[in-house]
Specification:
alpha+beta; Glutathione S-transferase Yfyf (Class Pi), Chain A, domain 2; 4 strands; four-stranded mixed sheet; 9 helices; globular; binds glutathione; Glutaredoxin
Amino acid sequence: MIDETSLALFIAPRSPFCRKVVASVVEFGLQHRIDLKIVDPWTCQALRAVNPLCKVPTLVLPDRTALFDSPVILQYLQTQSDQLLLPSGDARWDVLRREALADGLADAVIRRFVEGLGQADERASQMIHRQEQAIFAILDHFQNERAWMASAVDLGQVALACAIAYLDVRSPALAWQQDCPLLARWFYDFRARTSMMIAASPDAGQFRTLDPEPLPAAFVALSRTGQS
Ligand SMILES: N[C@@H](CCC(=O)N[C@@H](CS)C(=O)NCC(=O)O)C(=O)O
């Protein structure tokens, strides 16, 4: 039910940054506070009226203050929930650093995709190569420094899972699972969380769950060879 404590959340369901916020809303247990507004940021004048950047995600507080970018929104949501996904003290910097790396992964996947849509020339292929270097360096980093995999769910993990989900959709040919089998196993487990399934549904599920997505062929092949 929408009331005076409701928070308006502008999203576009495919955006990895929006998925991160929607999955976090569910992990925080704040669905009842959210009035979801599914928009196209390229055409939505209501979004421009509250956020001059006209980008999603944008969260509008009861006093009409609009919050963006997604890391700011997540920090605000943490203040509204007892579920601790962004700790205080030293552990906070580790979570925020992982969130920033994961957002960088999503950015690189988006830039690679956009460059691929344009004219195929020297500049475009250099740019695509640079984004692929970033994608594999970030994935390697997460696999090599994997103490985080054993910890309780946090915002860094949610951000990473949403960025990898986007990578799988936008760049399946990269078959990153072969280089990072431990990370792949973590991801295909993590994406079965209710929060991730809700965030993956086309209208963000209006906070309903859907059936799990099938595993990609590259991961199935890896599982057969026992590498994952
Ligand atoms: N760093 C921002 C990224 C937000 C962003 O780039 N959103 C895209 C959708 S994925 C958007 O709204 N694009 C519309 C535009 O660039 O005008 C965040 O974390 O919220």
